What does this fold into?
Amino acid sequence: MPILVEVAVDSVASAVAAQDGGAGRIELCAGLLEGGTTPSAGMIAACREQVAIPLFVLIRPRSGDFLYDDAELAVMQRDIAVARDLGVDGIVTGALRPDGTVDAGHTTALVDAARPLAVTFHRAFDFTRNAAEALEAVTALGIDRVLTSGWAATAVEGIGTLTELVGQAGERPVLVAAGGITEVNVARIVRATGVREVHVRAAARRDSAMTYRRGKLSLAKPPLGEYARLEADRRLVQRLLKAVEED
It folds into this structure.
C-alpha cells in the first residue's frame, strides 16, 4: 500500500504546489505559524477551484489551547457548514476538557455538523493526559483519522508511542504521523511505526518581491516578518515521496 502524504498549506499557491508535487491530500489552514486556525471562506473556495485532490479544512477558531466554550463551539459549527457548502472533502478538528481528556460532547457536535465529510482529530490529541485513553475516546466517537506526533515534540521522538497507537487502532481510526517529518526521516518513521499516512509542511522560504521596505517596523513575529513567507515547495513534496518509495 502506498504512503499517502498530506501537506499543510495556507495559500492557493501552496495548495497547487502540493498537488503538483504528488501530495495525496491537502490540509488547508490559516495562521500556520501559530499552529493553524480556520481559513477564510474565500481561501477555501479558491483552493477548491484550483486543486482536484482531497481538500480537508482545519476547524480551529483561535490559537492557544483546545478548551472551547459554547460560543466558540457555535463558531466552529458555522465554519464547518461553510466549508461543507464550498465542497471540501473533510475537516480537521477536536476539543479537550480542562482535565486533558477528549471533550466527547463538543467533539460529537463537531462530527455531527461535518457528516458525511471525513473527520480528522487534530494534534489536540498530543495535548491529552494519556494517549491510549484519548485514542479509545476518539474511536468511540467514530473519528476517521487521528493526527499525532506520538505524544512528542516530533514524530521521530514519538516513534515508540506511534507504534503502540497504530497497533491499538487497528484499521480505524487511521493514524497520521505528524511533527517535523522530512525527506530525511520519513522512511524511518514509516518503517518503524507502520503508519500509512504522514502529514508534512514541505515548505521553503519565499522572499517578498517588494522593493520598498520599511526598516525597524514589523507587525509579524520574527524570524519571517513582512518580507518573507513559507510556501509549500513542489520539489520538497516530490523528494519526500521518493524517499518513502525507495525505502
The chain has one domain: 4-205+218-246. The chain has a mean pLDDT of 96.
